[in-house]
Amino acid sequence: MLTRRVIPCLDTRNGRVVKGVSFQGLRDAGDPVELAARYEAAGADELVILDVSATTEGRAHALETVRAVRGALGIPLTVGGGVRSVGDAVALLEAGADKVAVNTAAVRDPGLLTQLASRFGAQCVVLSVDAAARPGGGWQAVVRAGTEPTVLDAVTWAADGAQRGAGEILLTSVDRDGTQAGYDLALVAAVASRVRVPVIASGGARTGDDLVAAIRAGADAALAASIFHDGVATIASVKRALAAANIAVRP
After folding, report:
1. Known active-site residue 31
2. What is the pLDDT of residue 19?
């Protein structure tokens, strides 16, 4: 049986883990190496690191953070933030990433997804889709760490990105991010129904039941940050909830 993944996320800035609500009001949440080691020991299936200020500051990802985390980590590592070119992806993979996540640059140049998949294989390419609800219904894709809306329909963009070479969709609800109000299940279901690649649900988790709901909505994995950083829930507790719901997880 296919196991579902529980993925902690480390949003980083200036070598520290930060967390906010809807990408705003960032606060310090700890040392990335310490947290990465702790989450692996606790049973995390994978880890995601997103440099949340790389794009807005016009720089590449802080490679020293990736190298330091990789030195303490054995599980798969996805890294995003500031990826604008194949060269940026090469640097991250050489620093220890297993997968590279791209958002803003792919919206600017969708062909980048095809270039990355051709060079490294689709299994290494993650399209990060940050989605904000539209007042009239549906969702629009936003870029530059949630600061810039686009005209793209988020669901259509996710499907297009998968066709262009993305092997996975990291789907974040900007409205739910950091709120602990639960995942946007309608968003998860809409994207999962349109793509044939794995979807990682992100934004809004509080309890194991939220992760259960995300998986049942069509996600292949669930990502969470603040609930683990703040001790609201543990990886063990959310995996127990998943197992109790007859969702296969790695012990």
Report:
1. no
2. 73
